[in-house]
From TrEMBL:
<dbReference type="InterPro" id="IPR003356">
    <property type="entry name" value="DNA_methylase_A-5"/>
</dbReference>
<dbReference type="GO" id="GO:0009007">
    <property type="term" value="F:site-specific DNA-methyltransferase (adenine-specific) activity"/>
</dbReference>
<dbReference type="InterPro" id="IPR051537">
    <property type="entry name" value="DNA_Adenine_Mtase"/>
</dbReference>
<dbReference type="GO" id="GO:0032259">
    <property type="term" value="P:methylation"/>
</dbReference>
<keyword id="KW-0680">Restriction system</keyword>
<protein>
    <recommendedName>
        <fullName>site-specific DNA-methyltransferase (adenine-specific)</fullName>
        <ecNumber>2.1.1.72</ecNumber>
    </recommendedName>
</protein>
<feature type="domain" description="N6 adenine-specific DNA methyltransferase N-terminal">
    <location>
        <begin position="10"/>
        <end position="117"/>
    </location>
</feature>
<keyword id="KW-0808">Transferase</keyword>
<keyword id="KW-0175">Coiled coil</keyword>
<dbReference type="InterPro" id="IPR022749">
    <property type="entry name" value="D12N6_MeTrfase_N"/>
</dbReference>
<dbReference type="Pfam" id="PF02384">
    <property type="entry name" value="N6_Mtase"/>
</dbReference>
<feature type="domain" description="DNA methylase adenine-specific">
    <location>
        <begin position="135"/>
        <end position="447"/>
    </location>
</feature>
<dbReference type="GO" id="GO:0009307">
    <property type="term" value="P:DNA restriction-modification system"/>
</dbReference>
<dbReference type="Pfam" id="PF12161">
    <property type="entry name" value="HsdM_N"/>
</dbReference>
<dbReference type="GO" id="GO:0008170">
    <property type="term" value="F:N-methyltransferase activity"/>
</dbReference>
<keyword id="KW-0949">S-adenosyl-L-methionine</keyword>
<feature type="coiled-coil region">
    <location>
        <begin position="778"/>
        <end position="805"/>
    </location>
</feature>
Length: 810
């Protein structure tokens, strides 16, 4: 049985993080990722004489397992496992597994390394059985771990990893694709970190292209090399050294040039010039542009990239926003780059995306091929599109897609993107300053209060007309809701309480809503049929790409509703649940729907999709594809109804019991002197009250309370029996499900039901926005000054009249 993708990730992280102890995550990652690498290549390539990597005899992961508990475990891992792997495959240096300053000495080192090995020796982590064709599950797990390590590594040590979402944007706007790439196509990253940017470019090419990377930190270069292998790109070449001072890739004394270059260099590097004679640079990187300032290396990296591109090359680099507007030497360099027409576009990103810094950054796209005909620079302000993720921000799927669509199609979107002419950039006002807010006003329109409307009444026509997107869809609805007082103001024709009903029952609203429902139903019917045709061997990434693109384009040019918001609902559900399901089907087919297991106690809280909360006795069950709640709702409704009725009766009795405790438990009350209000104490009190022949109502309270306790115990006993019977029936039902039943439960009642609910909520949100805005405007100007004045005068007269009756005259 293949492990679920999310379970693989979370179990690896939880186990490794628990074992980390006091070691900094930036260091510990090297050991964990090396272990993952050795386990993966051993599972995948051992015994394969045609494999791209050789596993020497005695140097596999199983040979490492044999070292568990040995006093020489650290030294043996280095000498018997890692060094042979490194030498025969020409890999970078591995971390030192015999370093007592990081791993402890003596028994502490033995225990730490033994436990780390055993984490990867679990039967379910047989990586040879956990790779769907076309989907790099282990490569993705590697990136998952790196993201977590980057998050934990602190501000100064998280720069080895570029968030995958940003990497996707760079790769997709670069222009590389299956049609224009061949085996001779080259891609280069001069500051490659762990290699994620290069790998995203390779994914976009969809063919085997030549990958080159250089990384200053030796340990990080080793991570990049391992990352290439785990993503099935073993031919990718990674070099460890300083790119600016000692670039590896050169030909005849000149920098080697590439078809595509991507980079996320360290921001504003202060010592970039160490080892670089900028004034006499043998590669002439600064000759035609100017020398970057000694204390800021941003333009040094950008000019290195420009020099490393072929005459038809394309490059994309992530830099801090300061490169767009800083003055002095950088201003002159920027001016020269712009004049040569090298910049195709600039994309402003949200702040706090990157692990090494919280400042906002931008993507600068370089295009040499079309530089001589460049008439403008396409700019995007994407700074507001993100989600919070812990203490960082993250681009959502919808943000990535929108950026890529708008940039690649050069779409001008108000407050988001525009093509800025070279003349505008070069004029006296801007003087080659590329600061995005100069060209795109992304500020939200201020909601201005109309003083005259407050004084005289009426809703400003400007505010009503600002809802123009709605009136283009509901032109006659506007006339029903408002009538003109004059050219400047209007009045609401219906009572405030009737606004929502007026909108939601209007024929134009109903027509629009039905149209959107039809759009979704058409996508749902087609997609459900496609999903039910999946089977073992399916490619999950192709599946989600196909169905998500179909959903996105189903809402092309639809008024009011944002197609990217709709798209995000599907992508969020994919990430949370659906991805795991389809990876399971890709591995084992629909028969996985017959499987049900009892979750380990410690993992219950981590499961998001179990049974309904009121079926508490079953919350330890987990269907591999089908949650028990679906089995219950389709096959055991009468049993569930009985349980619901018992729970309702139990809650009613408990509520009455609490009322009695609150009413009689206070000081001086019937239960006030009891140590505890429970069965024993109340029974004792009842006996005393009967002996002293107390008031009937006191005896009745005691008897009622005891009856409620008895009823509660009886219901609990019945619930226990009912839940046990239901659990037995549910477990017995799973193996009897036919493939058709499984497909119906999963595709129709699990996936599509959830997606439909989310998208319906999105449509309702859009509709509610109109209602809320109209109510807000109506309430804002509902009581103009004359009316308030009259009300004050009326109230004043009433008060004075009352005072006069009391003999108090002002």
């Amino acid at each position: 049985m293949a492990i679920k993708k999310s379970e693989l990730y979370s179990s690896l992280w939880a186990s490794c993080d628990e074992l980390r102890g006091g070691m900094d995550a930036s260091q510990y990652k090297d050991y964990v990722l090396t272990m993952l690498f050795v386990k993966y290549i051993s599972d995948k390539y051992s015994g394969d004489k045609y494999a791209p990597l050789v596993i020497p005899d005695g140097a596999s992961f199983q040979d490492m397992v044999a070292l568990v508990g040995k006093e020489t475990i650290g030294d043996d891992i280095n000498k018997k496992i890692l060094n042979p792997l490194k030498e025969v495959n020409q890999l970078q240096d591995f971390p030192d597994f015999n370093d007592p300053t990081k791993l402890g000495s003596g028994k502490e080192m033995i225990d730490t390394l033994s436990k780390l090995i055993l984490i990867f020796n679990k039967p379910e982590l047989d990586f040879s059985k956990n790779k769907a064709e076309g989907d790099d599950i282990l490569g993705d797990a590697y990136e998952f771990l790196m993201r977590h390590f980057a998050t934990e590594s602190g501000k100064s040590k998280g720069q080895f990893y570029t968030p995958s979402e940003v990497s996707k944007v760079l790769a997709k706007i670069l222009g590389i694709n299956d049609a224009n790439s061949t085996a001779q196509t080259t891609a280069y990253d001069p500051t490659c970190g762990s290699g994620s940017l290069l790998l995203k470019v390779a994914d976009e090419a969809e063919k085997e292209i030549s990958l080159y990377g250089q990384e200053k930190e030796t340990a990080t270069a080793g991570l990049a090399r391992m990352n290439m292998i785990l993503h099935n790109k073993p031919s990718g070449t990674i070099w460890a050294d300083n790119t600016l001072a000692k670039p590896k890739w050169e030909e005849d004394g000149k920098l080697k040039t590439f078809d595509y270059v991507v980079a996320n260099p360290p921001f504003s590097l202060s010592n970039w010039g160490n080892g670089v004679d900028a004034q006499n640079d043998i590669y002439k990187r600064f000759q035609d542009y100017g020398t970057p300032p000694d204390k800021n290396g941003d333009y040094a990296f950008l000019l290195h990239i420009i020099k490393s591109l072929k005459s038809t090359g394309k490059g994309a680099i992530i830099l801090p926003h300061g490169v767009l507007f800083r003055g002095n030497a950088e201003s002159e360099i920027r001016k020269n780059i712009i004049k040569k027409g090298l910049i195709k576009g600039i994309i402003g990103l949200p702040a706090n995306l990157f692990y090494g810094t919280g400042i906002p950054a931008c993507i600068i796209l370089i295009d040499k091929e079309n530089a001589h005909t460049r008439k403008g620079i396409f700019m995007i302000d994407a700074g507001k599109g993100y989600m919070k993720d812990g203490n960082k921000n993250r681009l959502r799927d919808q943000d990535i897609h929108k950026i890529v669509d708008v940039f690649n199609k050069q779409l001008e979107v108000p407050k988001y993107s525009r093509m800025v002419s070279m003349d505008e950039i070069a004029d006296a006002k801007n003087d080659y300053n590329l600061n995005i807010p100069r060209y795109i006003d992304s500020q939200e329109t201020e909601d201005i209060q109309d003083i005259l409307a407050h004084l005289k009444g009426g809703i400003p026509q400007n505010d009503i007309n600002a809802l123009g997107d709605y009136w283009r869809v509901y032109p006659n609805l506007k006339k029903v809701l408002f009538s003109d007082t004059n050219a400047t103001y209007a009045q609401l024709n219906v009572p405030l309480a009737e606004v929502k009903n007026t909108i939601f029952t209007h024929p134009e609203f109903l027509s629009f809503t039905n149209d959107l429902k039809t759009v979704f139903e058409q996508w749902k019917d087609k997609t459900t049929a496609e999903l039910k045709n999946l089977d073992a061997g399916s490619k999950p990434k192709e599946v989600i790409n196909t169905i998500s693109e179909a959903l996105l384009h189903a809402y092309d040019n639809r008024a009011l509703i944002d197609q990217y918001d709709v798209y995000q609902h599907l992508m969020s559900y994919w990430s949370e649940t659906m991805q795991d399901d389809i990876y399971v089907i890709a591995a084992d087919g629909w028969k996985a729907g017959n499987e049900v297991n009892r979750m380990a106690k410690e993992s219950k809280n981590a499961k998001k999709e179990t049974v309904r909360k009121d079926v508490e006795g079953l919350d330890g069950l987990e269907g591999r594809l089908i949650p028990p709640s679906l089995i219950i709702s389709h096959y055991f409704t009468s049993e569930q109804n009985r349980i619901d009725a018992l729970n309702a009766k139990k809650e009613e009795g408990q509520a009455t019991k609490i009322e009695l405790e609150e009413e009689h438990g206070a000081e001086g009350g019937l239960f006030g002197d009891l140590e505890k209000i429970n069965k024993a104490e109340v029974t004792k009190l009842l006996k005393e009250k009967k002996t002293e022949k107390a008031a009937k109502d006191e005896i009745a309270v005691c008897e009622t309370y005891l009856k409620l306790l008895e009823q509660d115990s009886k219901i609990n006993a019945e619930l226990k029996v009912a839940l046990k019977a239901l659990e037995k029936n549910v477990i017995a039902k799973y193996p009897t499900l036919t493939e058709i039943e499984i497909k119906t439960l999963v595709a129709d009642h699990k996936w599509m039901y959830t997606i439909a609910t989310a998208i319906t909520t999105e449509m309702e949100r859009v509709s509610q926005a109109l209602t809320l805005r109209i109510k807000e405007l109506a309430e804002r100007y509902e009581n103009p000054m004359p009316q308030l004045k009259n009300e004050v005068e009326t109230l004043e007269e009433k008060v004075n009249a009352h005072l006069a009756k009391m003999g108090l005259v002002w």
